[in-house]
Amino acid sequence: MAKIIIVDDDFNVANSYKSKLISEGYEVEIVGDVDALSAIRAMKPDLVLLDIFMPNISGLLILRELRADSELASVSVLILTNDAKASDMDSAVKLGVDGYILKAETDSDALVGRVRAILEEKKDESLPSEGVI
């Protein structure tokens, strides 16, 4: 099953998401902002759930680093936030984020739906086109 890393400083929310995702069959790890890049490099996840506002390193900076790393540039990223400022969302889109959710407005079932959709889309992109040998 797909590997997911949750990068968030709110461990209560992250653990709630982790429990739900594990129950759906995903392999899930939670890391804080400082350990995010090294954990992502080590695990090479299929998807990163990334908070934007964290105390030490901005999620946008982590996203920028991922997109600049040739080994990690194709990792899917779903932004988790409670404060969706238009400027931050524009920056995230320019950096190639796969989507975002507002934590306060998204229950765990909706999160699983978004995760599943992103991973399915990524899987479809990696399949060869019809007729290609």
Helical region count? Answer: 5
- Name the strands of the widest sheet in spatial order: 2-1-3-4-5
Shape category? globular
Q: Structural class per helix/strand content?
A: alpha/beta
Quick description:
The protein has about 130 residues and is an alpha/beta fold.
Give me the secondary-structure topology.
Layout: E1 3-7, H1 11-23, E2 27-31, H2 36-43, E3 47-51, H3 59-68, E4 76-81, H4 86-94, E5 99-102, H5 108-126
Parallel strand pairs: 1-2, 1-3, 3-4, 4-5
Helix pairs in contact: 1-5
Walkthrough of the structure:
By secondary structure, the protein is an alpha/beta fold. It has 5 helices and 5 strands, in the order E-H-E-H-E-H-E-H-E-H. It has helices at residues 11-23, 36-43, 59-68, 86-94, 108-126, and strands spanning 3-7, 27-31, 47-51, 76-81, 99-102. It has a 5-stranded parallel beta sheet, with helices on both faces. The two termini are 27 Å apart. The model has no long low-confidence stretch (mean pLDDT 88).
Keywords for this structure?
alpha/beta, Rossmann fold, 133 residues, five-stranded parallel β-sheet
